[in-house]
Amino acid sequence: MRAKLIFLSAALLLAISFAGTSWAYWIWTPQTGKFINPKHAVRESPQEQFDWAMGFFEAKDYKKAISEFEKLIKSYPLSKLSSEAQFYLAWCYENMGEYYRAYQDYQLVIDKYPYTERVEEIIEREYRIANLFYSGQKAKLLGVAILPAKDKAIEILGQVVENAPYGPYADLSQFKLGQCYMEINDYINAALAFKKIIENYPKSALVDDAKYNIAICASRASSGPEYNEEDTDQAIKEFKDFVKRYPDSSMEKEARNFITKLEAQKAENNFNIAQFYQKQGNSESAVIYYEEILQKYPDSVWAVKALENLQIIRKQDKNQ
After folding, report:
1. Do 201 and 207 meet the contact criterion of CB atoms below 8 Å apart?
2. How far is the C-alpha of 92 from the C-alpha of 301, rounded, in Å?
3. Where are the chain's structural domains?
């Protein structure tokens, strides 16, 4: 009697709801001990489930493929095919243009399945996705296009470096990270990112460019809304260091032009201070600043003006 009941239970089709003109049928499965809708049932083995999901993937029915890969991951978490399912699930999102979600799912492969042989391929894909965000690829949120986000590029590039600090994409990602920070005017973090190129990847072909960009960061920081003498001095120092270290660089001439520009900026600032003291009747302090311009920036236009004002002051002192 008991065997008969089990047999009947296994074969029983139970209609549990009515929707429009169609019935939704559920079936009892001894494997789960539950009534399951065949539409949502998982295959009897990880391989069968994986092959079933891959059929949808190859047919480019990515939404259905995602659903089937998720079933495998949930139902067979200890199977080695779970890591492959996670990888292809991420690939589905990438093919659908859901790039940030794709990145998140690719990263889950590395985080959850450290034994996977897909690490290098995943890092390459993450780097490619980061470049899409960096170059202006529109991300999607709930299917709606949103503005390109440098913060996403920064997050992903940082993760690429963390995943493989000395991998083939490490120095490229670190450099691109600095460029991202530069584009959002975060020159402090940009300079730090470029310095890591020099410190961690001294043999990288990007060291030359990184050193130059450090100087650019210092220069832009010094030319903010308020003049900052320390930032200007640092920028001049960085450019001079660059010229000294890389005299044959294609950017050497441009670096010298920046030095000239920044020194002219310092000369102008000193001239304005000297002129202020001169107008206040403090000729001694004015003379100090004018003479500093002549000594340090003799080739600047401000040296000519400083000399003219010095002659006026000396003539006035002589007549007193």
Report:
1. yes
2. 62
3. 1-41
